[in-house]
Each structure stands twice: as C-alpha cells, then as structure tokens.
Input
Amino acid sequence: MATVLDDINAGVREDMEARKRLVSLAELKERALAAAPARDAWAALGGPAALRDELKVIAEIKRRSPSKGDLATIVDPASLAVQYADGGAAVISVLTEKRRFNGSLADLDAVRASVDVPLLRKDFTVDEYQIWEARAHGADLILLIVASLSDSELRDFSALSRELGMNVLVETHTEEEIARAVAAEARIIGVNVRNLKTLDVDRSVFASLAGLIPAEALVVAESGVRGVDDVSHYAASGANAILVGEALVSDSTPRERIAEFTAAGAAAIAARA
Ligand SMILES: O=C(O)c1ccccc1NCC(=O)[C@H](O)[C@H](O)COP(=O)(O)O
Output
C-alpha cells in the first residue's frame, strides 16, 4: 500500500517534470554556477564537536502540512524570515513542496533576498534537478530523506551537493536508516520523530536513536517541538540542533520563541556536560 511519503514523492516528481519543461537542466546548471557561493551551514550549526557549545535552531517556514492542514497564513515569508534571523535562528528552512505544504521556490527567493543566514531548501529530493534548482535559488543546505532514496542516490546526491558547496541534512527515522546515513558519510544527520509513512509523532524516538550517531556528525532533532520541555528533552538526549516548524509559524512572537528555545537548550546542554 502506498504511504503518505510515496504519495508526496509521486506529486513532487510530477511537479518537477512540469518545471523541467520551463527551465531545462542545462539552463539551471548555468544559473546555479553563477549564483553567489553557498554559506557554511555546517559551521552555523556548530561545526566540529569541540566547538558545539549550544543548541542551534533551524526555524522553518511551513504554511501547511499533511498532518495538520493549514498552519498559518504567511503573507510575507521574507519578514517572517527576518524575525527568525533576529531571534537567533542558525539556519532558516523554507518548505518548497507545493501540493501538500503550499510552499514554493518563490518563497525561497523572497527569504534569500531578505536574510544572510544559511537556508535549507526543504523539499522531498528525488532527482538531481532539485539539487541544481536549490543552488540556483540560493540554498546552502538541502534535505535528503533516507527512506525515499537508494544507497547510490544518497551517495550521488550528497556528492553533487558538496560539489556545489552545499551541506546536506540527511534525515532518518530508524536504526537501519542511521546506519545507511553513516555509510553515506553524512555529516549532518537528522532524526525525524515524525514517521513520514504514518505521520505519528513520537518524541521518544529521538532519545532512542541519537546515541547511534557518530560524535563527529551534527545531530538534528526534527519535529514535535511545541514548547521548552521538548527542547530540553532533545538537548539532554544529544541534539546539537532542533528543526521547528509549527510552533514558530503559529506563534505571534517567533523571535522571542527562538530566543526562549535557545536558552532552554543551552541550560540542558550545560547540565549534560
Ligand atoms: O509535517 C508533516 O505533517 C509532514 C508530513 C509528511 C512528511 C513531512 C512532514 N513534515 C516535514 C517535517 O519534517 C517538519 O516540517 C519539520 O520537521 C518541522 O516539524 P514541526 O515542528 O512538528 O512542524
């Protein structure tokens, strides 16, 4: 039976084929190679293990989700991104998937023009075209979801992203997926506590898997942050960064929220040391 993730990926492929008819891969490559160099998302998220002294926040611009429907009316993603940056977000994630999340590359362009922090193009990457597209639109980091890709795709897409100067957030949800991410030499590994096949959110998944990730890799806890208790839980369980969508887009003071999450994370990390 097809899962939610299968359906999303099928829609992503269809939409991408339509974009390919408007902008060829050759044209996209020219644009990507002419773009300003990518910012260092690895360093922004803490860099080498010895330098990681606080919890970093990846703040997401997320309009809608398959699990919750419409989350927020984001009239101006650029001004939301400025609030995220002012609050201290290390990286801003922009969901560009159209059908299920109501995102777009126009959102990514608007955010790129408004802030200088590294940007994650948050999409369901299934084709190298999307990687060239991410770079052409100013992204610094892309998402690869292990559950959607073969080992060779994982390796090839990671290599291409690195060649273009970008970092890769490799997303996992199980022990086996972490082993595959490590084998692909991922340097930034996310554990998404949302099961993308069932949409269940189980925050305990993070603590059960984070310890399997090698110390050199940056560990990102993805999804399920609703308040400071969740932040403290993830930081105490080994997160170097958290990826937060819903809690920020549905808050009237996202800047203050990010500062609050950063402080809660720092306290939990200090207690862990
Ligand atoms: O958010 C969903 O419902 C969803 C469903 C299917 C595939 C992916 C989905 N979300 C992508 C994400 O991983 C989240 O946007 C991200 O981790 C932030 O999560 P949250 O803070 O819980 O909004």
The first strand starts at residue 56 and ends at 61. The chain has one domain: 4-36+47-272. Strands lie at 56-61, 64-65, 69-70, 91-95, 119-122, 141-145, 167-172, 188-192, 218-222, 241-244.
